[in-house]
Write a structure and sequence with these properties.
This is Nucleotide pyrophosphohydrolase. Helix content is about 65%, strand content about 0%. It is mainly α. The structure holds magnesium ion.
């Protein structure tokens, strides 16, 4: 968590000043993360690919990242480790020789 310590502490400070930790169980953090992801998708709904508001994109990405960080913190996880572990799993599923330049899902490679 070292690489993200400063920003996570900012998020926790914001949460604790409002006494919101009591609401932040893993289930509700996951639901909030999904809601924010939907808000991100809404920015693109019924529009062409690159026709979105960058300021709104920043806001929704920040919301998503904050809930993701809170979920990480709640479960005492190491962000770098879980990402490295998942990259390894993805590398096994998508070997370079089969997946390079290819968007096919792993089970159809
Ligand atoms: Mg939002």
């Amino acid at each position: 968590m070292e690489g993200f310590k400063t920003i996570i502490n900012k998020i926790l400070e914001f949460r604790d000043e409002r006494d919101w930790e009591q609401f932040h169980n893993s289930k509700d953090l996951a639901l909030a993360l999904s809601v924010e992801t939907s808000e991100l998708l809404e920015l693109f709904l019924w529009k062409d690919n690159e026709d979105f508001n960058l300021d709104k994109l920043k806001d929704e990405l920040a919301d998503i990242l904050m809930y993701a960080f809170l979920l990480v913190e709640k479960n005492d996880l190491d962000i770098n480790q879980i990402i490295l572990d998942k990259i390894k799993k993805n590398a096994d599923k998508y070997p370079v020789d089969k997946a390079k330049g290819n968007s096919t899902k792993y089970n159809e490679l």
